[in-house]
């Protein structure tokens, strides 16, 4: 009987650890996604003036012309200014940051995750690799005549 009770206690503890870990990862993902979404919105306004003035009025209604460099620069500046971004330890810009079509700002952010209630860091849990969140947000700004 005592073995059965001990078994149920271990199972309950394991369940608590799994649910707590999953909740922590989900909440951290939502926090990083909010930062990525704000950075994408800011980067969507990172007008490439050369492309805009080359297109002239033809740009109206098609979105702000963007370049990968302009998006990356806007994202970097946003992350430097953002208190929410500074609150995420180890946050960095991913290689997918840029513009896939010249009109949409795409922001990819990476952040390491620490699991609560576990004495080991993620690198020990998954064989030496870090457990990393990867989130992607996209935003687009359309130009309209005044």
Task: Offer a few descriptive terms.
146 residues, alpha+beta, three-stranded antiparallel β-sheet, 5 helices, 3 strands, 14% strand
What does this structure look like?
This protein has 146 residues and is an alpha+beta fold. It has 5 helices and 3 strands, in the order ααααββαβ. It has helices at residues 2-43, 49-55, 68-81, 83-86, 122-125; strands at 92-93, 104-112, 132-140. It has a 3-stranded antiparallel beta sheet with strand order 1-2-3. Helix 1 (2-43) packs across helix 3. The termini are far apart.
Please compute the radius of gyration using only Cα atoms. 21 Å
The computed structural class is alpha+beta
Describe the largest sheet: 3 strands, antiparallel
**Helical segment count:** 5
Order of neighbouring strands in the sheet with most strands: 1-2-3
* Strand-residue proportion: 5-15%
Protein name: Flp pilus-assembly TadE/G-like protein
Q: What's the short story on this structure?
A:
This is Flp pilus-assembly TadE/G-like protein. It comes from Pseudokineococcus basanitobsidens. By secondary structure, this protein is of the alpha+beta class.
